[in-house]
Please model this.
Amino acid sequence: MADKDRLIIFDTTLRDGEQAPGCSMNLQEKLRIARALADLGVDVIEAGFPAASPGDFEAVSAVAKQIKGPIICGLARCNAGDIDAAWKALEHAERKRIHVFVATSAIHRQYKLQMAKEEILKTAVEGVRRARSYCDDVEFSAEDAARTEWEFLKDIVSAVIEAGATTVNIPDTVGYTVPGEFAALIEYLRKEVPGIENVVLSVHCHDDLGMAVANSLAAVKAGARQIECTINGIGERAGNCSLEEVVMAAHTRHKFFGLEIGINTTRLFPTCRLVSSIVAMPIPRNKAIVGDNAFAHEAGIHQHGVLQHAATYEIMRPEDVGVTENSLVLGKHSGRHAFRDRLQTLGFELEEVELNNAFRKFKKLADQKKEIFDADLEAIVLQMDGAEAGPWTLRDMNIVTRFGGSASAEVWLMKSGEEPVNQKADGDGPIDAAFNAIAALTGMDATLTDFEVRSLTVGQDAQGEVAVFMRKGGRDYRGTGVSTDIIEAGTRALVDAVNRIVRSQEIGRPEKSQAAASV
Model:
């Protein structure tokens, strides 16, 4: 039964968020994000779609075994194979949920499923019953519910509740609805569906018209008690409802919503930075809650007001979301204890092996930079599972570039403990030359499609992050690299992208199932 005074935060960054182009994650990256989500205090982690691929199954299983606290959820279509796979992946979880779905709208019934209403209803009921035979916590989603006839949606929701669903999700799969309309739909279901008071009513909104957060909050005001969302709002097309935005809306406007949440809001900023780094998708400066400009004031009248009293122009305190000043905190003579303490203050909890690795990188960076800022420490942690996590390792490089002429690169790579090999190549610029050398060394026939650079810290010796995107076999792969030398960062990003292609080929991971792509 839903707690009328509590809002459940269901995070689907690892499932729906990963479906955004270029946002695929490897196993270690998923585990790092899952640990961050658990520390953040989310109620449910949707770890993936186990039947989609061996890689997804492995990831869900690993999260289920290693992450304690939140409910671990796996997605499945309403068929026996998917549901059985979800259960096998989840069976070792401390707390588990099977999430089944089937499309219900007329356009999906006609063009995607070629099924009548009666077949859809039967499929939904059978899926819920099979999931309940494994697990007491079962969620049902009516895909494209926002465009489904209300009367038919009422029949589906009534049937799955009777079949044993404990959470019923009403997705705005294509971001079509608007707040007033969506709230009215939730109110209609609460009034017309028998037994709906005994289940948790959930919503899952996409941002195609820029209203995912507004629609989700309107639904909550109308009686929904679970919001499905992602960190930074990542997801396919325009993305999903943004976790940090709905959380801070409920927190900041507590008197309006009157709901409790279990999120540690001070972990929002570091968690958003972590996800941004792993999926190589920078946070826009004007992004609500966690963007660089969220607590910045340039207009004179605003600055004067904030200096007199912060609440004149700030409805939240920066520290409430985990934003710290970019201040000098450590130097090359600092020890491990001070390093660990500062990382904990910034919201990062590392295992001993990870801490030792990060500390070595800190010492190396401290010899290169005059000043070490909080953002430098964040960059060290955020790149730990990034570049070179694969068979190829960058050992050395020599780049020569000429004004108005071509560039040449000599790159040394080492493969899985073998002796380093080197290759020289020319190119239109230093990155093109490095790419040609790496392609020749690795035999990687891929196309470099995009190259993005952003500053992680400040000053002349700032660290920069490079994200590259490669295309091979119709799929996009991204790689990231961080360094005070932007050419080195770019070369590391190229190696990282090659490693991701190699890993994908080794496990034979197929394209994600299109059936899961639009829940």
